[in-house]
Amino acid sequence: MDKPLNNRAWLLVAPVLLFVLFSALLPMMTVVNYSVQDQMGENHFFWNGDAWFRDLLNPATEVGARFAGALVRNLAFSVTALLIEVPLGIAVALCLPRKGWTVGATLVVIALPMLIPWNVVGTIWQIFARQDIGLFGAALTGLGLHYNDTQDPVSAWCTIVIIDVWHWTPLVVLLSYAGLRAIPDAFYQAARIDGAGRWAVFINIELPKLHKVLVIAILLRFMQTFMIYTEPFVVTGGGPGNATTFLSIDLVKIALGQVDLGNAASMSLIYNLITITLSWIFFTIMTQLDRRREE
User: Is residue 214 a part of any domain in this protein?
Assistant: First the structure.
């Protein structure tokens, strides 16, 4: 005889659900409300329908051109960061010790950048990248390289990429290292018996076993890079020009700088939808590939 289901556990979950409802759903509905209305001063609103969305998705309009440009910069930054951080993180994880007292110390040192808050990271690199007193900027200038993150778009772009690589590659390292430690020694013993070289071991044993871990790492890093705000805001302010003006920075400028709540609300909803959709597509594709590989 089947035991009756005990639903009393929902009483423990209910406070969390109510908190999520209050902290997430209600602000979202407020944004939706602003996205379909226009304001005529003194908090007088009137129905505007989908006009804000049509303007935003039309590259011929000013706000549409800004949105399209910021979206392209966001995607380019995410792809660039992932192409650097994932291979670099795997390479560093492969070089870490597997046994001994140095394991804990090494992992702690590697994880230190992740413990620094975003605004502090921006402040550190804002000073670090200065050409007069900053170690990074002064070193590049001393080598004869044209570097100025406040006036040169290429320098500003490279600086933001380097900051993100320094700050978040440790996440990929730690996840990859955990995946490598989970591989049974029997696989390595079989590889040694077969006379497999280091590259063959990585391609045929380690990389396939890291597949699920890398899915999590890439998904987390994509969402973080696509929503980056603090570092470019503190270091470059979105400049020079619009070189580092990503969607998050442009959204704040429209909402707070121009007090254009309608356009800001519609942009935030589309921004959120793009992030969720791209993450879902990536996760679905990687999951399907993993299932086919197991079959």
Answer: yes
List 37's β-bridge partners, or say none: 47
42: in domain: no
Specify the CATH number for the domain of residue 91.
1.10.3720.10
Distance separating alpha carbons of residues 70 and 53, to the nearest angstrom: 16
Long-range contacts of 266-275 (CB under 8 A, 24+ apart): 266/35, 266/52, 266/53, 266/56, 267/56, 267/63, 267/67, 268/31, 269/31, 269/32, 269/35, 270/53, 270/56, 270/57, 270/67, 271/247, 274/71, 275/223, 275/226, 275/227
d(CA 8, CA 111): 40
Most confident by average pLDDT, 56-60, 82-86, 129-133, 200-204:
82-86
Query: Residue 229 has which token pair?
Result: 């705000």
Task: From 268, 78, 255, 43, select the one nearest 161 (Cα to Cα).
Answer: 78
**CB atoms closer than 10 angstroms to residue 230:** 16
Percent of residues, the chain, with pLDDT higher than 70? 96
Total domain count for the chain? 1
Confirm if 147 and 141 have CB atoms less than 8 A apart: yes
Which among 188, 218, 220 has a CA at the least distance from the CA of 204?
Answer: 188
Residue in this structure with the two tokens 């502090």, named with its chain if needed = 120
pLDDT by residue (tens digit) across 264-292?
888 899 988 888 888 888 888 877 877 77
Give CA–CA dist 284/98, Å, rounded: 33
Give the tens place of pLDDT for each residue, 124-158.
888 888 888 888 888 888 888 888 888 888 889 99
Q: Domain of 158?
A: 63-294
> CB–CB of 228/77 below 8 Å?
yes
- Please name the residues in contact with 33: beta carbons below 8 A apart, sequence gap of 6 or more: 265
What is this structure's pTM?
A: 0.84
DSSP label at 224?
H
